[in-house]
């Protein structure tokens, strides 16, 4: 596993309940400012193996990035269960819920 991947996994694991981070934010902190898509791939391929809190990662607009309704509802329910409130169906107020380690 390369260093970027290890750092990204560590950052994702460190997101506390009730907070979110963006793909780009994780990529920057892990050492690759343009690596947001790689963070998506890490979440897709390593969530189960590393027990990553995938639901706490959203896009830079503060929105759930999934397109399938079932995935959107699942992520939203998981975040709401941690106390995150939504502005609308998919959007979170990043000024309130974004985690800055």
Written description of the protein model:
The protein is mainly alpha-helical. It contains five helices and two strands; from the N terminus they run H-E-H-H-E-H-H. It has a two-stranded parallel sheet with strand order 1-2. The chain starts with a helix and ends with a helix.
Keywords, separated by commas or semicolons:
50% helix, 2 strands, mainly alpha, 101 residues, two-stranded parallel sheet
Describe the structure concisely for a colleague:
By secondary structure, this protein is mainly alpha-helical. It has helices at 3-13, 23-30, 36-50, 69-81, 94-97, and strands spanning 21-22, 57-58.
The number of helical segments is: 5
Shape assignment: globular
Question: Could you give the distance between the termini?
Answer: 23 Å
Radius of gyration: 13 Å
Question: Which spans have pLDDT < 50 for at least 5 consecutive residues?
Answer: none
Lateral arrangement of strands in the main beta sheet: 1-2
Q: State which percent range the strand residues make up.
A: under 5%
Class from helix and strand fractions: mainly alpha
Helical fraction equals: 40-55%
Largest sheet: 2 strands, parallel
The strand count comes to 2
- Mean pLDDT equals 96
> Helices and strands, in N-to-C order?
HEHHEHH
